[in-house]
């Protein structure tokens, strides 16, 4: 039996939730903002106080290393992210990062020597809501390079990605710099389920089998801005009319016809955005998810056809650009077994399940065996300030992680 301190973990979750705190209990700690930097500084400070080495790479991924008996062996990596949605919950990302740090501290408390180093990671910009795409830190780490086109990225507030990245790295001068990407032995991430099934079935641990595919599109429908009071129907080229007709058809078919499909429009911008002018253009994002890559292709084709048709009917044009394409992944079978065994050795019921949300583990899985542990969240709610995890469930997930870490690092 390898102990972790559940009270310390839950206290830390509350302390980190004060950074970027929102009135309804959630957090706004979007990637590379001051809140994100503050959370990184707090974690690094805790790590340095315990004598761990702290590193960051050119993507501002933050690593905390506890040495192993053989320092030449690739580290076992555990972690998640500290950035949040604009109105996010306090557990999405923080739970996995702070659980991983709790494992590291508990190994230290017990004076346990592991055969290989164990590293905690807090990946940069998992959410992708300020700078798309999501999982930028883990994606670049797995590729060993930062894509050149990221140099031009801008947030909706006009902030430049390279400038914000550099300022974030500079805000943590205590961290040693290291190159992007290095060999990893295995990767394990704890996360809240962000869906209802564990809670509904009263199962404390999800052994994640893989992650469904995600595609993000940006749709621009362009018409002609004109006077709201004087422009009769036959003179209008109204992109709102085209967009609303296309969306109405897509909402009525995509999810009703396929229970595995997900279709979300989360961001909408009208220009010029005046109460008494027909818009010139409208831009919206579309987030589609499906476990089957061919179905994602079919969904994208359907969406493209719907916007083109409705734009044509209104004398408008539609342009569609892919912002992000994340193929589904399957996690390492042996590592899934280890997590299932760890739960069962602690007498905790578990079930295998696919992740509906994407996670950094998808990219870690490209360079090392990876797996995830899910814990229940109340009413399946996430990307919402009301997100809540029972302290006992947070503790249970961390105990399973510790058990898995010990079996993977025994010499
Ligand atoms: C990431 O948070 C996602 O949208 O799945
Ligand atoms: Mn997350
Ligand atoms: Mn999230
Ligand atoms: Mn996520």
TrEMBL record:
Single Gene Ontology MF annotation: hydrolase activity
Family, similarity comment: Belongs to the peptidase M20 family.
NCBIfam families in UniProt: hydantase (TIGR01879)
InterPro entries in the cross-refs: Amidase_Cbmase, Bact_exopeptidase_dim_dom, Peptidase_M20, Peptidase_M20_dimer
PANTHER family, per database record: ALLANTOATE AMIDOHYDROLASE, ALLANTOATE DEIMINASE-RELATED
UniProt entry keywords in alphabetical sequence: Hydrolase
Residue span, Peptidase M20 dimerisation domain: 210-312
Domain of life: Bacteria
Pfam families, A to Z: M20_dimer, Peptidase_M20
Ligase in keyword set: no
Listed name of the protein: Zn-dependent hydrolase
Source species: Ciceribacter sichuanensis
Keyword Hydrolase: yes
């Amino acid at each position: 039996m390898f102990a972790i301190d559940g009270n310390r973990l839950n206290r830390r979750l509350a302390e980190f939730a004060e950074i970027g705190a929102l009135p309804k209990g959630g957090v706004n700690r979007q990637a590379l903002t001051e809140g994100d930097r503050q959370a990184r500084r707090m974690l690094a400070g805790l790590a340095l106080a315990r004598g761990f080495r702290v590193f960051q790479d050119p993507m501002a991924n933050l690593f905390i290393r506890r040495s192993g008996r053989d320092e030449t062996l690739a580290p076992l990596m555990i972690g998640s992210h500290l950035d949040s949605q604009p109105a996010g919950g306090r557990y999405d990302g923080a739970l996995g990062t702070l659980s991983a740090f709790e494992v590291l501290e508990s190994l230290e408390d017990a004076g346990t020597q592991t055969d290989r180093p164990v590293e905690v990671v807090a990946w940069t910009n998992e959410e992708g809501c300020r700078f798309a795409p999501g999982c930028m830190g883990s994606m670049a780490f797995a590729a060993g390079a930062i894509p050149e086109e990221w140099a031009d990225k801008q947030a909706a507030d006009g902030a430049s990605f390279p400038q914000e990245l550099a300022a974030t790295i500079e805000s943590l001068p205590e961290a040693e710099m290291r190159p992007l990407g290095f060999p990893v032995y295995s990767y394990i991430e704890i996360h809240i389920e962000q869906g209802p099934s564990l809670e509904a079935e009263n199962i404390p641990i999800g052994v994640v089998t893989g992650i469904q595919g995600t595609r993000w599109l940006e749709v621009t429908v362009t018409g002609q801005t004109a006077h709201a009071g004087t422009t009769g129907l036959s003179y209008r080229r109204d992109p709102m009319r085209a967009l609303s007709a296309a969306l109405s058809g897509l909402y009525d078919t995509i999810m009703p016809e396929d229970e595995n499909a997900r279709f979300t429009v989360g961001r909408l911008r009208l220009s010029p955005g005046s109460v008494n002018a027909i818009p010139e253009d409208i831009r919206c994002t579309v987030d589609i998810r499906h476990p089957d890559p061919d179905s994602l292709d079919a969904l994208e084709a359907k969406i493209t056809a719907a916007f083109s048709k409705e734009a044509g009917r209104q004398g408008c044009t539609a342009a569609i650009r892919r912002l992000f394409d994340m193929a589904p992944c399957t996690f390492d079978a042996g590592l899934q077994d280890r997590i299932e065994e760890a739960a069962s050795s602690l007498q905790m019921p578990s079930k295998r399940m696919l992740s509906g949300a994407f996670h950094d583990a998808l990219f870690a899985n490209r360079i090392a065996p990876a797996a995830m542990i899910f814990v229940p969240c109340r009413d399946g709610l996430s990307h919402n300030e009301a997100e809540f995890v029972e302290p006992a469930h947070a503790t249970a997930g961390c105990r399973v992680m510790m058990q898995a870490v010990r079996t993977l690092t025994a010499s």
